Amino acid sequence: MKQLLNTLYVMTQGAYLSLDHETVRVEVNGDLKLQVPLHHLGSIVTMGNVMISPFFLGKCADDGRAVVILDRNGRYKCRMVGKTNGNVLLRQAQYQAGQDDDHTTAIAAAMTAGKVKNARNVLLRSARESGDPEEERHLRKSADIQAEALFHLKSARDTDHVRGLEGEAAAAYFDVFTLMMKPAERDSLPMNGRNRRPPLDPVNALISFLYTLLLNDCISAVEGVGLDPQMGFLHVPRPGRPSLGLDLMEEFRAFMADRLAVTLINRKQITLEHFEPRPGGAVYLNEKGRKEVVAAWQKRKQEETEHPLLAEKTLIGLVPHLQARLLARHLRGDLESYVPYIHP
Amino acid sequence: MNNTSDPIPISALEHYAYCPRQCALIHVERVWDENLYTMRGRDVHERVHDDSSHEAAGIRMERSLPVWCRRLNLTGKADLVEFCGDTPYPVEYKSGHRRRGVPETVQLCAQAICLEEMLGLAVGKGAIFWHGSRERQEIVFTEAMRRQVEEVSATVSDMLEKRMVPPPANDKRCEGCSLKESCLPSVVADKDRGRRAARELFEAKP
Ligand code: SF4
Description:
The structure holds two protein chains of two kinds. Chain A is α/β, with parallel strands linked by helices. In chain A, 49% of the residues lie in helices and 17% in strands. Chain A contains eleven helices and twelve strands. In chain A, the strands form four sheets. A four-stranded mixed β-sheet of chain A has the order 1-5-7-8, with helices on both faces. The longest helix of chain A is centred in the middle third of the chain and has 29 residues, at 101-129. Helices cover 42% and strands 24% of the residues of chain B. In chain B, helix 1 runs antiparallel to helix 4 (102-119). Chain B is elongated and about 80 Å long. Classes of the chains: A alpha/beta, B alpha/beta. The interface between A and B is medium-sized, with 38 and 28 residues. The structure holds iron/sulfur cluster. Iron/sulfur cluster (SF4) binds next to helix 2 and helix 6 of chain B.
């Protein structure tokens, strides 16, 4: 199995990245904090006020290593990539599929089925672990709603129908989200459904931040195989919006981001002190919180899993890349349908 | 649209001889996986590929020499051509250990055919240098080899023109193939597996 190239996340404000032969130097106020070989570095992600030397940027462009710039809260700003590894035939196929309603619906339905099925598995797992019969019942009920959505997705009429089913399933999922957290944690980190832009409570701030990390990985995966990240199937293409990146991340949300958020909270690795409330009610992770989450994220990506369709062992962090390839092979006509990854 | 006049890269012949799909993935789809295998391969080539001529022990060495053949519409670069007197002797550098491989000989023989046309001289021999085991293997270009170069050139030309991507080999070759990750030979070859997974996707197991 291909190796998982590392991502270097630089979050220290005022840091300076420069090229030193085949390594990158990270300096803060003139002090060398870190020096890493470029060989196994697949991408660089900076958050906030981080400076990068032009030589280092040029080197990354040559090597095909993406540099992603986020603001301090992890919101996406831009992504610098070198020469397009242009597979124009693949993009043509992607646009053709996007013009064909039946094909678009089939892909969107498969992607949504992946999302819903993985959400259901997360709910069922929490139900099994729950000590409270009443709460277990709620979790199972929500899992049943996911199963129902799955059933209807199979014969979805069009993409609007798919989106409607997705919306209902997601609402039922977030209704019981806090039941996956331990009761003590629910009291200290209360949550009222899903909210974003901006997140209004710590749990939403945490999930949003994880989604940003996941989205960046999915955009990289999509671009890595030569697909156009803006041309999505489930998400309507809109200028500036990484619709296909958003499409691809759907199947990973529950087990990669949500489940990780719950684990971090239940293990008290993330507590109230990791958040920063802003006047007016928005809530974000603070620097300490971001560091904790990024470390956990990187660790999670190194975990092994079995890919059901490929029948191969792989690392969780590589699954978005594998899925992007399966999608590319489907669009090029090698595979009859796109099959999302279902986490075992 | 007419792209029949686009010359065929000589490397495409080698790829085709290894696996037709590999050739199509690289030259039609332009897929290239950067894994350790290819990175190492690139290092070897970067070293031989700084274009230069120099002479040692009466042998003139041309590194990274552009070669082409109008008759077969081929183009490429020879890693190294040694000139002993007038006679050119192409040497192809390969990472890894010595293998008994048809693909490498097809590539080398194609270079010889190019040199013959370019220089109007007969090129009877060449060598493959295996970087991993540091072995040099001499190849004598036979009639059969030359015919194979012609056949493969015609087939590859057709494939590139029609932008065809053949189905995967899905055999032992895939183990040593640097494009396995993009090619996905097992799933693409096994249609039933994909169909089953697509069906089961919408089923909710209790
Ligand atoms: S993985 Fe196998 S089928 Fe695919 S290109 Fe390589 S050798 Fe050919």
